[in-house]
Amino acid sequence: MDKGNGAKTSETLYDVLKVSNDCSDKDIRNAYVQLSKQYHPDAKGSSQDHTARFLKISEAYQTLSKPKLRREYDEILKASQNSRIIEVGKSARTIIHRQVQEKTIRPRET
């Protein structure tokens, strides 16, 4: 993702679902349902790209649909932005996501 200044940033889970970070739980669910229908692997004309996108959509929904995980994700996201750790590669983003799900990391004190 390009923020307009030439700097690329990682796609957040909110970006995956095409919602804002202050959206409601209902908005998250509606976005998930809509995108799942569009990218589901069983959909007509589905490709490997669609399957990969569907997995990202499912992963985003699994985190953002659960209030506690969403809060933890938001705290980590805020801490990374405050620390200017914006360029996070796919593997690091996946590790952070897993750690949030497993509740093994806590956001840094600021």
Automatic annotation (TrEMBL):
CDD domains associated with the record: DnaJ
Q: Which SMART domains match?
A: DnaJ (SM00271)
Could you tell me the superkingdom of the organism this chain comes from?
Eukaryota
Enumerate the spans annotated as J domain: 12-77
Write down the Gene3D superfamilies for this protein, in alphabetical order.
Answer: DnaJ domain
Q: What is this protein called?
A: J domain-containing protein
